[in-house]
What we know:
Two copies of one chain form a homodimer.
Chain A: H1 2-6, E1 9-15, H2 22-35, E2 40-46, H3 47-51, H4 58-75, E3 82-86, H5 91-100, H6 106-111, H7 113-121, H8 130-133, H9 135-145, E4 150-152, H10 158-175, E5 184-186, H11 216-224, H12 245-253, H13 257-269, H14 274-300, H15 303-332
Parallel strand pairs in A: 1-2, 2-3, 4-5
Amino acid sequence: MLVETVRPIILTGDRTTGPLHLGHYAGSLRNRVALQRTHRQFVLLADAQALTDNIDDPEKVRSNVLEVALDYLAVGIDPDETTICVQSALPALAELAQLYLNFVSVARLERNPTIKDEIQMRGFERDIPAGFLCYPVAQAADITAFKATVVPVGLDQAPMIEQTNEIVRRINRQVGRELLVVAKALIPSTGRLPGADGKTKMSKSQGNAISLSASPNEIRAFVNRMYTDPNHLRASDPGVVEGNVVFAYLDAFDTDHASVDELKARYRRGGLGDVTVKRRLEDVLQELLKPIRERRQAVSNDLGYVLDVLRSGTSRARAITQSTFDELRDGLGLFSLAGTR
Amino acid sequence: MLVETVRPIILTGDRTTGPLHLGHYAGSLRNRVALQRTHRQFVLLADAQALTDNIDDPEKVRSNVLEVALDYLAVGIDPDETTICVQSALPALAELAQLYLNFVSVARLERNPTIKDEIQMRGFERDIPAGFLCYPVAQAADITAFKATVVPVGLDQAPMIEQTNEIVRRINRQVGRELLVVAKALIPSTGRLPGADGKTKMSKSQGNAISLSASPNEIRAFVNRMYTDPNHLRASDPGVVEGNVVFAYLDAFDTDHASVDELKARYRRGGLGDVTVKRRLEDVLQELLKPIRERRQAVSNDLGYVLDVLRSGTSRARAITQSTFDELRDGLGLFSLAGTR
């Protein structure tokens, strides 16, 4: 118990809109596997948040709760170390979100840079679902309900943590003590992995990503279609490493950094063909993804186990989030009908 | 049980921002006492909604949950006939509201005429709390959670029922069946009771109202300061009945309509003094309020009983609202972790 209370609390998670891919692995999943040893980690299957821009396709959101859970278990997120839980099954999160909406002005929500960008990206314009505009508040509910102090986010999500902390400070001021805790964004040191075409980030919808359950042939085909240096026509030509997707992936996944640096030098000088570099990357990815694919297959044959993991994680999370809500209700002096829950 | 299912379902309630007054009695409370015999009636102590524009004063909202409950019991709302429940103690309402936010656009919320008026009235301008903008969606959650078909509202609240029914239709279309029910506004045939000054509606904040627990002296003083006809200087003068607060109250509370009509005729003709009419109104109000005041006093001496009423009503309401949420979750095909609740 002593160790538990000393470990910093991390909240992280994924919107359940599709199985995770190698970009998620590089950007977050492998960090979670490492962090679960030193942190008290909660991973949220964010199906309620996924509905804020997918209400026309609830089936996609529903079916991917289990797909993403399989990905978690496949990469080595350990349910004995990490609490994996389902957002929509935690009513205290909705209750907190509803309460927090009173502490945030509409104008403030509309100024949120992430929301502004995403509204444009999704082409919502004036038809923004209210749930979408309000999702930063729901996210504040998620983070604070677990009293997370560390929240791993991409650089573009940093304004979400700011919004959360504004709510935390406003409420703590009103309550008169540090009832909620201020969270810190943990922004990954490595940038986003590019897609195979080198132009965009890895994205399933653009055919630019490779899933964690990809077969050996799919991995090979993915590497083969990677963008390299279009002017590097013969192996003997000098080549450019910057913007070269194959090297970006070697940087991300090849653990022998010295040898990657040597390859880069040879590529720049001339005398190293794309095919050789791609075969090396393919070997690295085949080795990385084989055990993940196999574990994913094994776990997906035992959905009873997966559901047990989600049930016990969610039930643990329910107690924690409910207790935060109760504490806040009492701290703010709201009405309580003790004994009717 | 047969009778139960045949009775139409009514949802009604009050924001818990202050004890109720004679205006509430005339406009809604006495209707509820009548309707509870023919309808399955749910009355919501709307503390969560009250917070949408009172987040700086949660104590006011909290303490008035019990005050309003006392008013209900005092006027004869019978907890054996009517389910009295506390909004904030029903998590399924927050869950439904969060889900519904995805079905409503921000533009639609901003077009709501009631919200537009209230934003102006409260001087919110651009600093509207998000919870306030979204409260029509929370109200839709309340109404639909109980599957209410009848919702008594003031004329100015009719757009709220429209908003609710838009959500109901949109969701039923997506679910493919009439899972949620369309509600009808029940708009009272009598208009709003004026305040003592005759200019505004009865409002505690303007010193223009009389509480249900008013003492005999307070009732007398309230009647004495009522606005009549400023040109009716002597009893022998002809007087004007229209806009005359005393007659408005006699219309609302004196059950002997024939005799009120006769008084009006005499007042118009001349020969009836204000004092005489006021004494008659005072008698009517003293008689009306005496048993209410006495019951309120008796019940407030037994808060254990009041809490029991709220606990059992809320627990009944929790089962109903939770069941609607579960049904909707399954109807929309959302993820469900059966067995973890």
